[in-house]
């Protein structure tokens, strides 16, 4: 008796069915992957979206390129990038760091991590007299530490430095912001020296300082005032910076300001300190002149060119807003010519005797050296401040001590 065996499907058919089932399952996944493949990479990024517009989203982790891009405040920065602060926008920017990359703004200058280097001069051997006080090397210039905030400052400094040197200004707003930042840095002994080492930059600052102000809108600092403040800051307690200007003084005075068509000498002695300017501008300019007069050569030229005549009209002003500028002038005269304890070299000024009150209210003679006593007395009566009383007292003593000198201008 023959047995009945169950029918079985051939093996090839079973294999084909299994493969077909797997293929059907794979098709939707493949189609889905194909549909979204252009954004496959972006799907893996964590995005930050502050609006419903997807075009305004940006990755949580900053993705650098070879060009500087703005870094959002809530983005994460990978390590090793070249990061800078854009002084015009106030935004942080970053790009791929390229070792030994040279900033075009620093071309031609020795740099170390975007910090300008000052080449140390050869120190001369000085024979110290016996019993002299110990020397304190307070004038030694040290470069800022590289990296961090110092790097940002150096880049901002060089961008404004380049605008002053070349005269090429991207925009008025950028230039004004740059001058404001440069004024802050000028008080640093290192940057003060760098400013005065470049002749073209010094010429540009003197030209700006001697430019008439004209009407000034509220909240705006005129460029002449900013330039004066930069010079004053650079010269403050910085003998090395003062020496740089002293070396080029004659050349500087003979230079012409292209936008004014006048020499710096003419602007410096006739337009830098004017009662028609704002008291703030005059105060900054007097501070700059005070710093310059610390140099023997410049002080001699200043006296020979009747520089004191541009200071005296400020003492004529009776409004309270002029008090600070008048005090600056009083301090300049005391520290430079009358108060030996403050470093003044006595006997250089004033010369001759005081003029009469009548002479000092006459326009033709009101600016003579002999009228300083009269206007110092007016300051005492107007303000009664300690500096005005000290100025009056010191002037009287100087007149007495200098009585044997020729009397220049006495009527």
Fold and architecture overview:
By secondary structure, this protein is mainly alpha-helical. Among the domains are: 45-101, no CATH class; 103-117 and 141-310, Leucine-rich Repeat Variant, CATH 1.25.10.10. The chain is 46% helix and 6% strand. The chain has helices at 11-36, 40-43, 148-166, 172-186, 189-197, 199-209, 223-235, 239-247, 249-254, 264-270, 279-292, 296-304, 323-338, 357-360, 372-382, 386-401; strands at 47-48, 58-59, 69-70, 81-85, 92-96, 111-112, 115-116, 256-257, 262-263. The strands form 4 sheets. The protein has a 3-stranded antiparallel sheet with strand order 3-5-4. A two-stranded antiparallel sheet has the order 1-2. The chain has a two-stranded antiparallel sheet with strand order 6-7. A hairpin with a 4-residue loop joins β8 and β9. α3 (148-166) packs across α4 (172-186) and α5 (189-197) packs across α7 (223-235). Residues 1-11, 13-19, 21-43, 108-140 and 407-411 have low confidence and may be disordered.
Shape: elongated
Count of beta strands: 9
Count of helical segments? 16
| Helix share, percent | 40-55%
Signal peptide: 1-33
Protein name: Nucleotide exchange factor SIL1
Organism: Hypocrea virens (strain Gv29-8 / FGSC 10586)
GO molecular function, one term: adenyl-nucleotide exchange factor activity
């Amino acid at each position: 008796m023959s047995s009945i065996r169950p029918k079985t499907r051939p093996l090839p058919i079973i294999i084909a069915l299994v493969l077909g089932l797997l293929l059907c399952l794979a098709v939707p996944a493949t189609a889905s992957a194909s549909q979204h493949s252009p954004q496959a990479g972006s799907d893996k990024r964590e995005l930050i979206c502050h609006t419903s517009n997807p075009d305004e989203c940006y990755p949580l982790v900053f993705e650098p390129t070879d060009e500087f891009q703005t870094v959002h405040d809530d983005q994460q920065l990978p390590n090793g990038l070249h990061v800078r602060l854009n002084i015009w926008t106030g935004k942080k920017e970053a790009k791929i760091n390229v070792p030994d990359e040279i900033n075009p703004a620093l071309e031609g200058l020795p740099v170390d991590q975007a910090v300008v280097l000052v080449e140390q001069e050869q120190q001369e051997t000085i024979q110290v007299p016996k019993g002299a006080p110990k020397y304190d090397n307070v004038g030694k210039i040290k470069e800022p530490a590289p990296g961090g905030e110092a790097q940002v400052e150096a880049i901002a400094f060089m961008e404004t430095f380049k605008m002053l040197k070349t005269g090429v200004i991207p925009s008025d707003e950028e230039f004004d912001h740059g001058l404001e930042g440069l004024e802050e840095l000028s008080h640093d002994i290192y940057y003060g020296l760098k400013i005065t080492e470049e002749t073209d930059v010094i010429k540009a600052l003197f030209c700006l300082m001697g430019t008439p102000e004209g009407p000034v809108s509220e909240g705006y600092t005129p460029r002449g005032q900013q330039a004066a403040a930069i010079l004053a800051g650079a010269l403050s307690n910085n003998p090395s910076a003062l020496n740089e200007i002293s070396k080029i003084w004659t050349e500087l005075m003979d230079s012409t300001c292209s936008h004014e068509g006048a020499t710096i000498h003419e602007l410096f002695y006739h337009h830098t300190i004017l009662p028609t300017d704002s008291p703030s501008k005059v105060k900054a300019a007097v501070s700059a002149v005070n710093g310059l007069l610390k140099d023997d050569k410049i002080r001699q030229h200043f006296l020979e060119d009747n520089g004191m005549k541009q200071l005296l009209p400020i003492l004529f002003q009776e409004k309270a807003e002029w008090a600070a500028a008048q005090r600056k002038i009083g301090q300049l005269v005391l520290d430079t010519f009358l108060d030996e304890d403050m470093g003044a070299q006595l006997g250089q000024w004033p010369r001759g005797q005081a003029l009469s009150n009548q002479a000092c209210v006459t326009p033709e003679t009101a600016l003579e050296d002999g009228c300083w006593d009269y206007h110092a007395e007016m300051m005492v009566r107007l303000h009664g401040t300690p500096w005005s009383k000290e100025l009056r007292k010191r002037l009287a003593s100087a007149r007495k001590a200098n009585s044997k000198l020729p009397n220049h201008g006495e009527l």
